[in-house]
Design a protein that fits this description.
alpha+beta; Nuclear Transport Factor 2, Chain: A; 7-stranded mixed β-sheet; 6 helices; about 25% helix
């Protein structure tokens, strides 16, 4: 689901939060009320209803995530399915080296990702799959290191590999993606053998 494809993600300013103020209201509202209003978080749009099969388990939601962004050139992706996997306000955070040196991260929301990926996927195929997974879980949260491979055509040599660090939440009814941060493999930072193999599951 990636923006490791060149050109998917450009620099993006933070989403601005605006509030409508009725004419003359700012003069009549006491300073303490203004301060309280400023501290209220903006209401996030609700996510589309998910297919229960996509969010019933960690395996299911990760499979759906990779599936929804993959397809041949010109194939329209089901972006509402994509949105249904994420908590409202969820973040997608590509990281990597900056042209001027050092490393950086860009804070995107799901629609930011969609607006960039959609035009690119019109022109070229993009298939991404998981090759290994490491999970830490406690209570209703899980932290997943998902090793990925990206291809333009199924079966060809991957043009990119890397790690998707995925934060999951279970609300008691379903799984949600709260955030994804990813970084691509580079010659000076190859994936270790440990990250290319899932740990063996313990026998009950």
């Amino acid at each position: 689901m990636k923006a490791n494809v060149a050109g998917i993600i450009g620099a993006l300013a933070s989403v601005a939060l605006t509030a409508a103020i009725a004419a003359g209201q700012s003069q009549a509202t006491p300073p303490s009320s203004q301060s309280q209003a400023a501290q209220q978080p903006a209401q996030m749009p609700a996510s589309p209803e998910a297919n229960p099969a996509d969010v019933s388990s960690q395996d299911a939601i990760l499979k759906a995530l990779y599936d929804v962004i993959s397809g041949p050139a010109g194939q329209k992706r089901d972006w509402n399915r994509m949105r249904s996997l994420f908590l409202p306000g969820a973040k997608m955070i590509p990281t990597g080296p900056r042209p001027g040196g050092g490393f950086g991260a860009r804070m995107l929301n799901v629609d930011d990702y969609v607006s960039r990926a959609d035009s690119l996927f019109e022109k070229e195929g993009f298939f991404e799959n998981e090759v290994a997974r490491r999970v830490d879980e406690w209570g209703h949260i899980a932290q997943v290191f998902s090793t990925y491979e990206s291809r333009h055509v199924k079966g060809e040599k991957p043009f990119a590999r890397g790690i998707n660090a995925i934060l999951l939440h279970n609300d008691g009814k379903r799984w949600w993606i709260a955030a994804i941060m990813w970084e691509a493999e580079r010659p000076d930072q190859p994936l270790s053998e440990r990250m290319l193999k899932s740990p063996e599951k313990k026998q009950p």
